Amino acid sequence: MASGSKEERMLLPLRVGEYCHDWKKSQDICLSLIDDDEEAVRANAALGLAYVARTKGRLEKHQVKPALLMLLKTSQEYRWRIIDAIEDINMFLDWKIGQKAVERFKNESDQ
């Protein structure tokens, strides 16, 4: 996934999350982009996973949860987008991942 411009890599997870009919392929593309060098691409990969949760109603928790929690800890500029993605995934899939961490980061940003 390293090929393509930053803009192309930023759009890819959003497009597959929204339009690709294969939830597993969409998830795998988003997960591969979570390791991108650009924080904006990584944040959009998390958002792409939220799109998959919304449009396909399915993700593999054992793969998605650790990736999102890692992003939540390591992201700075786009942490808000990671939080939004986690909250959306929790809502659409009835999961409860990262709730304490999300609340902690929200409280830190309010101070």
Layout of secondary structure:
Layout (H helix, E strand, L loop, with lengths): L5 H14 L3 H11 L5 H18 L4 H14 L4 H15 L5 H12 L1
Helix pairs in contact: 1-2, 1-3, 2-3, 3-5, 4-5
Short précis:
The chain is mainly α.
Cα-atom radius of gyration: 13 Å
Shape: globular
- Through-space gap between termini: 38 Å
Q: Into how many domains do the coordinates divide?
A: 1
User: Would you tell me the structural class of the helices and strands?
Assistant: mainly alpha
| Major sheet details | none
Describe this structure in words.
With 111 residues, the chain is an all-alpha fold. The chain has one domain. It contains 6 helices and no strands. The chain has helices at 6-19, 23-33, 39-56, 61-74, 79-93, 99-110. It is globular. The mean pLDDT is 94.
Q: What key attributes describe this structure?
A:
111 residues; mainly alpha; 6 helices
